[in-house]
Amino acid sequence: MYDTSTRRRALALVAQGRSLNSVSKQTGISRAAIRSWQDRIEPLPRMLAPDPGPPADEAAYSYLLGLYLGDGCLSPHRNGGYYLRIVCADAYPGLIELCREAITATRPEVGVYILQREGCVTVTSYNRHWPTLFPQHGPGKKHNRTIALQPWQQRIVDAHPWEFIRGLYHSDGCRITNWTTRVVAGERKRYEYPRYFFTNTSVDIMRLFTDTLDKLAVEWKSLHQSRAAQTVSIARKASIALLEARLGPKC
C-alpha cells in the first residue's frame, strides 16, 4: 500500500504532461494504480481481520507461554502485524516439534515455519494479534521490565500448571544426573540420581516459575550466585519424582 505523499508525487508527474507509462517506469508503480489515484487519492481503509479471541487450546497456550517467557519474542512487521519467534536448540529436535504443535494448537489459523540458524532454529509464526495473547511484549529485554500475567493468563496457568512449568523448563531449564558412592556390605557402589535446574535473569519470570512450583507442592531452593542470572535447584526426592513423571529429560 502506497502512502498519500507517494501518490501525490506520482500524480504531480502526470500533471506535468507525462504519460502513465513513463511515470510507471520512473516510479515502479503500476499504471493501473496511478490511473485509480486520479479518481481517489486517499487510500481505502484497510480491513483488519477480527481478533480471533482466546487461545483455541488453553493447555497448549500455557506451554507456549512458558516457551515465550524463556526464549521467545514478538517482532513487529512494517504492515502492522507481528512475528512470534521461539528459539530452540538443534540438540532437542523433539522440543522444536512440540513448539510448532503448540503454536498451531493455540492459533490453528496461522502458519508456522522453521528458520535454521547456526546451532539452533527459530520457530516462527506471523499474525496481527500475537500481542493480544502475549501482552508481556514490550521494548527492551524482559529482565529490564516488569513481567506480570494478566488475570486471564493466570487463570489458564492455574488450570494447566504443569504445561506452564514444562514450557519454562524446555526453554531455560535442564536436568542433570548427579552421582555419589556408598559402601554397601564392604563394597563401594556408585549411585546416580537426577536433579533439575532453572535459570533466568528476570526476577519476575523466576517468581512465576517458583510460585507455580509451590502450588504443585514441588520443593525448590535458590542457589547463591555472583552473576546476574538466578538459578533454582530441585533436588528433594519427592519433588524429583513429580518432575520425572511430568517432565523427564529434554528430547
Structure notes:
With 251 residues, this protein is an alpha+beta fold. The chain is built from 10 helices and 8 strands. The protein has helices at residues 4-15, 20-27, 31-37, 58-71, 93-106, 130-133, 151-159, 161-172, 203-215, 237-246; strands at residues 72-76, 82-89, 113-117, 120-127, 173-184, 187-200, 221-223, 230-234. The chain has a 4-stranded antiparallel beta sheet with strand order 1-2-4-3. Strands 5-6-8-7 form a 4-stranded antiparallel beta sheet. The two termini are 44 Å apart.
Beta-strand residue percentage:
15-25%
Uncertain runs: none
SS content category? alpha+beta
Percent helix: 40-55%
From the alpha carbons, calculate the radius of gyration and give it in angstroms: 26 Å
Q: Termini, distance in Å?
A: 44 Å
Q: Which strand order does the major sheet show? A: 1-2-4-3
Strands, total number: 8
Mean pLDDT: 90
The biggest sheet, with number of strands, parallel, antiparallel or mixed sense and barrel status, is:
4 strands, antiparallel
Q: How does the overall form come out from the CA principal axes?
A: elongated
Q: Strand-and-helix sequence, N→C? A: HHHHEEHEEHHHEEHEEH
Tally of separate helices: 10
Structure, briefly:
The chain has 251 residues and is α+β, with helices and mostly antiparallel strands.
Topology (SSEs and partners):
Elements: H1 4-15, H2 20-27, H3 31-37, H4 58-71, E1 72-76, E2 82-89, H5 93-106, E3 113-117, E4 120-127, H6 130-133, H7 151-159, H8 161-172, E5 173-184, E6 187-200, H9 203-215, E7 221-223, E8 230-234, H10 237-246
Antiparallel strand pairs: 1-2, 2-4, 3-4, 5-6, 6-8, 7-8
Helix pairs in contact: 4-5, 4-7, 4-8, 7-8, 8-9
